[in-house]
Structure formats: structure tokens, C-alpha cells
Amino acid sequence: MPATHDVPTSASVPASTPAPVTSGVPTTPAATDIHPAPASPLRTVNVSGPTGKTFDVQIWQERDDKTCFDHAYGTPIVTFLTEHPCLGLHRVLATTTVKGRPVAIAESSTGFHGAGADNPYKYTAQFKALEEADDTGSINDLLREGYRLPSGPTSVPSAEVFNVLGQDNGVVIYDVWYLDGSTPADDPALIQLTEEVFLHF
Questions:
Q1: Do residues 41 and 32 touch, judged by C-beta distance below 8 A?
Q2: What 3-state DSSP class applies to 46?
Q3: Contact yes or no for 131/76 (Cβ under 8 A)
Q4: Are 18 and 70 in contact (CB under 8 A)?
Q5: Tens of pLDDT along 132-170?
Q6: Residue 176 neighbours by CB distance under 10 Å
Q7: What are phi and psi of 91, to 5 degrees?
Q8: For the segment 76-111, what is each residue's pLDDT rounded down to a tens digit?
Q9: Whether residue 41 has pLDDT greater than 80
Q10: What percent of the chain is helix, strand and coil (3-state, nearest 5)?
Q11: Which residues contact 201 (CB under 8 A, 6 or more apart)?
């Protein structure tokens, strides 16, 4: 990631107990672990993307953790994160509007140490490839750990846009979907949204 966008740390947002992961499959949060959306957004970010498009993004939930392996599922991903500890994990749940339609965003960002001066982005590239492969697992989005948006599903819907973007030693994972109807997996407007908001919050 560029110098202006540091790898996430756990300093800014207090951590609470996550849903435990012991077998590579996330457990369902107990009722006591549910975090309802606040009455108003934690903050609103006005994003002006590289193509000049602008988005007002409402951040409803935000969390920082020091580790990734215990906030992930799927044996390949959990094993990788155990063998190659991440540099911190930053996750948000957000909403915005795309072409007049309400959209939800679950974003997870992390980073990795390099494999020496000759290959500083080796483990970042390997992790990104695992995320993009089928049936390998992923990092838990905040919905999986009991955090909620003001409206919409309690888990990322199966019909959604999934995108993984990387820069330098950082990786950002996006799950994005329309809140007022179905979402094609290749929806160009939502794919572009992920590229426009990349590294902005």
C-alpha cells in the first residue's frame, strides 16, 4: 500500500471478542455477540475516485484487530494466515448509493511482511491468489461476526460482487451488493465502485 495508507493496526477501534474459529469454519454469533447498527453512521466519507466519480460512503461498523487467522474460515486461508501472520486487520460495514440504488459494502483490508528485499510482496500475492481461488475460504466480513447494518441481510448474500484488490504489501477484500434487489456477480457498476473507493477508508 502507499505510504499514505498504512497497514491497519488495532489502535483506533477497541476490539471485542470475535466469533471463535477452530476448524476453519466460522461459528454463528450468539445473540449476546450481535452488534446492532448505531442510530447514525460512525462517519461519512466523501470519496472522489480515479475516474472522477464521487460517492458518499456511510461507515456503520468499524473494527481493527491485530491478527487475521482467528478471523477467517476455510482450511487453506486459515493455514496461510497461521503460517504468514498478517500485519493487522481493518474491517468496515458501509453503505452508499450507485446509480440511485442503495448498496452495502463489507470491506476487509490487511497486509503482509515481504519475503526479503528481493521479493517484498511475495506473501501478499500468494494471499490474494488464495482469496480469488474457489473453495479456499476468506477473512470473516463483519456480518459473520455479528455486526449489523441498519437494514439488509445478516450475512453477505450469495448474489453479490466479490473483488480483491492489492497494492504493494496490502490486500483489500470487497463484498458488495444492492440492498433493493438482486446483484449480478459481474455487475460493472459495483465492480467499478470497489475500484473507485479502494484505499479511501
A1: no
A2: strand
A3: no
A4: yes
A5: 999 999 999 999 999 999 999 999 999 999 999 999 999
A6: 25
A7: -135, 145
A8: 999 999 999 999 999 999 999 999 999 999 999 999
A9: yes
A10: 20, 30, 50
A11: 45, 47, 57, 59, 92, 94, 107
